[in-house]
Amino acid sequence: MIPLAIPDLSGNEARYLQECIATGFVSSVGPFVGRFEQAVAQAAGAPLAVATCSGTAGLHVALVALGVQRDDLVLLPSLTFIASANAIAYCGAEPWLVDVDPSSWNLDVALLEQLLQQECVRQGDRLLHRASGRRVAALLPVYTLGLPADMQRIVSLARQWQLPVVADAAAALGSAWQGVAVGALGADLTVFSFNGNKTVTCGGGGAVLGGNAALLQRVRHLATTARQGDAYDHDQIGFNYRMTNLQAAVGCAQLQRLDDFVAAKRRLRARYNAAFAGLRAQMLPFPEPEGYLSACWFSGGLLHTHDPAAMQRLLQRLQGEGVAARPFWKPIHLQQPYRQAPRSRQSVSEALWYRILTLPCSTALTEQEQEQVITAVQRCLT
Ligand SMILES: Cc1ncc(COP(=O)(O)O)c(C=O)c1O
Questions:
Q1: Could you give the percent of the chain with pLDDT greater than 70?
Q2: Distance in Å, CA 82 to ligand 1 centroid
Q3: How many CB atoms lie within 10 A of CB 131?
Q4: What span, in angstroms and rounded, lies between the C-alpha atoms of 156 and 161?
Q5: Ligand 1 within 6 A of CB of 327
Q6: What's the Cα-to-Cα distance from 234 to each of 19, 223, 239, rounded to whole Å?
Q7: Reported pTM
Q8: Atom 4 of ligand 1 has which residue's CA nearest to it?
Q9: pLDDT tens digits for 95-124?
């Protein structure tokens, strides 16, 4: 079976891990954590980074640091991984789910603007959701499949409405817009995941990036149980969200190869797109609008079908051909815990989600293996 996305750990990972064991630095204190933070900040074009134990933890602590509180609303696209919404719920807040743009699969900014104009009202320094009276506390754009959202317009709206922005860039390390790296697109905080299926992995892990030193210090403090000094003094309810030296050791080795990994991911995407050009009546390529450079976390295609069962049938056939293909995110408003969450119209996310096919895209996938996947897809779709 050709797997969907497995890590390539053939660089310095084992050597760095051995160093952790030899020196005894296996927990959150250790030299690799600081090295990892510097390397990830540099790779993402942001001045500062705080490493966390997961991307979800990074999102949660970022929202807390920016003041999201119980009963607040946070605007985000419904087409995302459930962790984006969960991080909001962990604050006691609720996701306000916006539809996505069909040309990018990212937050529909025109719709966002309409929601702010038509459904919100400013009261002093607070922005309120008119119907419920609840505070709208932040924007959380997601970089779907690693493609950055339209941050120029989102940041401009955020300034206009005085809302902080946390970018969920979980899978977007290595992406850019107009040559600007993904950590420098104007969000107050940008969050990455280094989960096992990401282009760069720590086994598990995350990072919160930004340029405001006081804000990043608040993130670090909250992620370190809000501890003051060494005498078990804590000034608020914090979290044990630190990354370990072991995770960071793997991450440091992985980051050394980021450029090669992204190049491999982009090559895989280009090959799939070229090979499936003759199948355009059955499947479209993933979006990459002009001016954007995606790190191409996953590759695959968008099936032309109105039948949600068609994907299941295709996945089973591909499985039979030795290809571990998978569907993609089910929108948040269709998930059990968020059925009651406020939302905009969702015609695009509902028309998209069950049609997105992800195909094997490990950075070390060989040309021969990719050829096998391509042949299998062609056989199944024609
Ligand atoms: C968009 C998005 N947000 C958040 C996360 C959560 O990251 P983690 O698995 O590191 O907690 C993921 C991970 O897959 C993701 O894809």
A1: 100
A2: 8
A3: 9
A4: 9
A5: no
A6: 32, 12, 11
A7: 0.98
A8: 83
A9: 999 999 999 999 999 999 999 999 999 999
Atom of ligand 1 nearest to the CA of 197: 14
Predicted pLDDT at 343:
98
| pLDDT at res. 243 | 98
Take residue 355 and report the two structure tokens written for it: 């049609």
What is the reported pLDDT for 45? 98
Distance 81 CA to ligand 1 centre (A): 6
Mutation test residue for ligand 1: of 56, 239, 244, the one with most atoms within 8 Å of CB: 56
Positions of the chain with pLDDT lower than 50, given as ranges: none
Q: How far is the CA of 292 from the centre of ligand 1 (A)?
A: 21
CA 148 to ligand 1 centroid distance, Å: 15
| 50 contacts 208 by C-beta, under 8 angstroms | yes
Q: Is 168 in the pocket of ligand 1 (CB under 6 A)?
A: yes
Rounded to the nearest whole angstrom, what is the distance from the C-alpha of residue 195 to the centroid of ligand 1?
A: 7
Region(s) of the chain under CATH 3.40.640.10: 13-255
- Ligand 1 centroid to Cα of residue 141, in Å, is 13
Q: Is 206 in the pocket of ligand 1 (CB under 6 A)?
A: yes
- 13-255: which CATH number, 3.40.50.2300, 3.40.50.9100, 3.40.1280.10, 3.40.640.10? 3.40.640.10
Q: What is the pLDDT of residue 63?
A: 99
Rg (CA), the chain: 21
Helix, strand, coil percentages for the chain (3-state, nearest 5) = 40, 20, 40
Residues 6+ apart with CB under 8 A from 176: 148, 182, 292, 293
CATH superfamily of 258-381: Aspartate Aminotransferase, domain 1 (3.90.1150.10)
Q: Which ligand 1 atom is at minimum distance from the Cα of 83?
A: 4
Is-contact 139 59, C-beta < 8 A?
no
CATH 3.90.1150.10 residue window(s) in the chain: 258-381
Cα(56) to ligand 1 centroid in Å equals 6
| Tens digits of residue pLDDT in 212-264 | 999 999 999 999 999 999 899 999 999 999 999 999 999 999 999 999 999 99
Probe target for ligand 1 pocket from 90, 189, 195, 353, with the most ligand atoms within 8 Å of CB: 195
Q: Are 128 and 120 in contact (CB under 8 A)?
A: yes
